Amino acid sequence: YEFIQGTLILELEEKGKSGNSNVYKDTLRALKSYKGNIAKLQLEDIDYNFLIGFEHFLIKRNCGYGGISVYMRTLRAIINAGINRGYLHKDSYPFTTTQGKTAKYDISKLKSAYNPRGLAIAEMVKIKNFDSDLNSHLRKAHFYFLFSYYCYGMNFTDMAFLEWTKIKAKRIEYNRKKTGKEFSILITEPIQKLLDYFRSLKQVNTKYIFPILNDDIYKTPR
User: Fold this and answer.
1) 182-186, strands of its sheet edge to edge
2) Residue 100 pLDDT more than 70?
3) Rounded to 5 degrees, what are φ and ψ at 55?
4) Alpha-carbon dihedral angle through residues 82, 8, 30, 47, given to the nearest 10 degrees
5) In whole angstroms, what is the distance from residue 83 CA to residue 85 CA?
6) In angstroms, rounded to a whole number, what is the distance separating the alpha carbons of residues 178 and 50?
7) How far apart, in whole angstroms, are the C-alpha atoms of residue 5 and residue 41?
8) CA torsion, points 48, 17, 8, 59, in degrees to nearest 10?
9) In this predicted model, what pLDDT tens digit does every residue of 7-34 receive, in sequence order?
10) Are strands 167-168 and 182-186 parallel, antiparallel or unpaired?
């Protein structure tokens, strides 16, 4: 418990990864509901039987397989960190591996019933042609969606942090917040029109393209 709370979560918060730290905290809360007092929980306690019991506990609480998968993948990351730092022997690894022959917990069996599907072309045309002049309260949301679409599905967080300095030689150059991967997107005519609109809204004291973040308020990731 102390390794998770006092080391891993603290490190994530110091790195500004508040989203990941919240996932770890949620996992600890779920473990507390499962076992009660977890102050003395050790890494070696998280074995195959522990994980099977945890899964059944979550199912009884109407947790979907998608949610259970998040908890289990978080526990797997914790176990991996413990092994890498010498707190747990690799033979105690409770999850399946390609080399494993003994009974281990298999996260891949947790299939979510969620079945995403893309918009039909006709539906996308309707969104493009939506008249936001007649629905001004929806204009920004409409333009955010279109910008993401024209930029190959740019993540909303990346849009929020996108700065004017990232526009270079008719391209948008940025690194994805989550993975650090570099992207270079050609500024097409539809993208340029959207940029022109938001430039007309630009306030003097902001570096961001979109009026989502305010430096006077959002000074830290949390």
Assistant:
1) 167-168, 171-175, 182-186
2) no
3) -60, -50
4) 0
5) 5
6) 31
7) 11
8) -30
9) 999 999 888 888 899 999 999 999 999 9
10) unpaired
What residues have CB less than 8 Å from 138, skipping those under 6 apart?
Answer: 130, 132
Do 1 and 38 meet the contact criterion of CB atoms below 8 Å apart? Answer: yes
SS3 (DSSP) at 175: strand
| Residue 1 structure tokens | 């418990």
The secondary structure of residue 105, as a DSSP letter, is: B
Q: What is the pLDDT of residues 132-183, one digit of tens each?
A: 889 899 999 999 999 999 999 999 999 999 999 999 999 999 999 888 899 9
Given a contact cutoff of 8 angstroms between Cβ atoms, the answer to whether 30 and 70 are in contact is no
Does an H or E element contain 74, and which? Answer: helix 65-84
- Cβ atoms of residues 76 and 95 within 8 Å: yes
Are the CB atoms for 105 and 76 separated by under 8 Å? no
d(CA 93, CA 79): 7
Do the Cβ atoms of 149 and 106 come closer than 8 Å?
no
| Residues 79 and 32 sit within 8 Å (Cβ to Cβ) | no
**Is beta strand 171-175 parallel, antiparallel or unpaired with respect to 167-168?**
antiparallel
Within 65-202, strands assigned E span 167-168, 171-175, 182-186
On whether the CB atoms of residues 162 and 174 are closer than 8 A, the answer is yes
Q: Residue 109: CA atoms inside 13 Å, Cβ hemisphere, count? A: 7
Which position has the token pair 């949620």? 26
Name every residue whose Cβ is closer than 8 Å to that of residue 1 and which is 6 or more positions away in sequence. 28, 38, 39, 40, 41
